[in-house]
């Protein structure tokens, strides 16, 4: 199960399992994740789940929300992503471990302190823990025909969405393209592709799949009229 690890000055404050459709992050006590710091807005950011994927959205905060040092409005989270909110660091991971003690109670103050950008970067750089990289072949999609925003995609995420909605890894650009046409999952033993609720059919080597199908190097995929080649690279 995915989780976020909340840290401050290298110390782990708490682990938060992501077992709900939506969680809010902010300074006020009515948030699901309360961060008691004047640099954090009352309602700072929101985590939303779309199928098995989580998206992080800034809620118009004073100091902004950063993912891997880049300011974002809304972004899909991937394993190991480092989120900066105020002076706190939130690390997105997949596996839930033991829960540390709960955070201190929320402050009664409603005033948000504007955080200096340089200080924010220094705090972000205080913990540069490297994520271990598994030794396995990386999948790629090469678009042969159809409307997409790119012609080639590296499948490095645990979950890859194919569709027209914002945050999709493979963005479909056709007028009638479904929001989520299919989903590719990356597992230790390889990749597989599955149908979504919006998709009528997905073809692998010209054969419609039933629910889910494993992918092999050189497979030809057809999703919502887009033809792609699946390849495995070292």
Explain this structure to me?
This protein is mainly beta. The chain is 3% helix and 44% strand. It has one helix and 22 strands. The strands form four sheets. Strands 2-1-11-10-7-8 form a six-stranded antiparallel beta sheet, with helices on one face. A six-stranded antiparallel beta sheet has the order 13-12-22-21-18-19, with no helix packed on it. The protein has a five-stranded mixed beta sheet with strand order 4-3-5-6-9, with no helix packed on it. A hairpin with a 2-residue loop joins strand 10 (82-85) and strand 11 (88-93). It is elongated and about 60 Å long.
The largest sheet has its strands arranged as 2-1-11-10-7-8
Radius of gyration over C-alpha positions, nearest whole angstrom: 20 Å
Provide mean pLDDT, rounded. 83
Give the low-pLDDT segments.
96-101
Largest sheet: 6 strands, antiparallel
Structural class: mainly beta
In helices, the fraction of residues equals: under 10%
Which geometry do the CA atoms define?
elongated
* Count of runs of 4 or more consecutive helical residues: 1
Strand fraction equals 35-45%
Series of secondary-structure elements, N-terminal to C-terminal? EEEEEEEEEEEHEEEEEEEEEEE
Strands, total number:
22
């Amino acid at each position: 199960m995915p989780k976020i690890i909340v840290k401050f000055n290298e110390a782990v404050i708490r682990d938060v399992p992501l077992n709900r459709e939506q969680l809010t992050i902010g300074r006020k006590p009515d948030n699901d994740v309360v961060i008691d710091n004047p640099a954090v807005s009352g309602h700072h950011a929101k985590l939303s789940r779309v199928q098995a994927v989580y998206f992080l959205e800034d809620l118009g905060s004073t100091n902004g929300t950063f993912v891997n040092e880049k300011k974002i409005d809304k972004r899909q989270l991937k394993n190991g992503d480092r989120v900066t909110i105020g002076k706190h660091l939130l690390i997105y991971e997949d596996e839930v471990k033991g829960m540390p003690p709960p955070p201190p109670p929320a402050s009664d103050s409603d005033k948000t302190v504007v955080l200096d950008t340089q200080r924010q970067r220094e705090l972000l750089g205080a913990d540069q823990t490297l994520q271990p990289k598994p030794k396995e072949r990386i999948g790629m999609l090469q678009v042969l025909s159809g409307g997409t925003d790119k012609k080639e995609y590296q499948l490095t995420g645990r979950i890859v969405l194919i569709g027209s909605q914002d945050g999709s890894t493979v963005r479909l650009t056709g007028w009638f393209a479904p929001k989520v046409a299919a989903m590719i999952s990356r597992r230790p033993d390889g990749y597989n592709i599955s149908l979504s609720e919006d998709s009528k059919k997905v073809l692998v080597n010209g054969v419609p799949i039933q629910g889910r199908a494993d992918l092999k190097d050189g497979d030809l995929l057809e999703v919502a009229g887009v033809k792609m080649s699946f390849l495995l690279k070292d």
